[in-house]
Amino acid sequence: MTEQTPAPKLEIRIIPVTPLQQNTSMIWSTQTMEGVFVDPGGEIDKLMQAADHFGVKIVAVWLTHGHLDHVGAAMAVKDRTGCPIIGPHKDDQWLLDEVEASGARYGIRDGKNVTPDRYLDDGDVLELAGNKFGVAHCPGHTPGHVVIYHPEGALAFVGDVLFRGSVGRTDFPRGNHQQLIDSITQKLWPLGDDMRFVPGHGPLSTFGQERQDNPFVADAVTGYNGAEKGEVDLISQRTSKRWS
Ligand SMILES: [Zn+2]
Ligand SMILES: [Zn+2]
């Protein structure tokens, strides 16, 4: 009797928000219809309309890092739904305290400073309707940046750590380019080449694709040889199930 109850199926929609076209993800279980917003950066009405349209009950906000365009609507989602705000790592609280002040500089005036209900740390596990998500602390773009990934569905929410053909800016206060590159090669690449990722801006890609031709973090540039692969236990439990 080795049969296992399959985890409920997950769906995702990506909703670009703010003038910076930040990718807010709405993930939900089609069985329980419970869902989360990853990085609700703004345009609260547009986000809640999407939830209503698909009949999703928002049960949490997950934040990758403290930048305005990723967190601006987090408090508004909490106000409207009563859900908790989870993440980022506590080292980004100084940014969460600056959302309102920095909004004026970016022409985003409806953002609110954020007080998370819970900070995230490396190795934490998040759950949505029985589906488990891993957490990796990936500093460099900001000191408290985390990446949230779903091993079973091979999908990662990487915020501004990594993009298709690029990496996050490190010219902001407390940014560190080498730390960012180390986060990518040491925390992300071991999750596997077929891990698809939703970046904070722009199109989706896979870690394998970026290891081939990303001018900042291709193996030819970083010298990464895959020796660290296999470090992440969760991957061995991955099934062929994919996101719909
Ligand atoms: Zn950012
Ligand atoms: Zn961003």
From TrEMBL:
Protein name from the UniProt record: Metallo-beta-lactamase superfamily protein
Matching InterPro entries: MBL_Glyoxalase_II, Metallo-B-lactamas, RibonucZ/Hydroxyglut_hydro
GO molecular-function terms, A-Z: hydrolase activity; metal ion binding
SUPFAM superfamilies linked to this entry: Metallo-hydrolase/oxidoreductase (SSF56281)
Species whose genome carries this gene: Hyphomonas hirschiana VP5
Domain Metallo-beta-lactamase intervals: 21-201
UniProt keywords, alphabetically: Hydrolase, Metal-binding, Zinc
Keyword Metal-binding applies: yes
Source species, domain of life: Bacteria
Cofactor: Zn(2+)
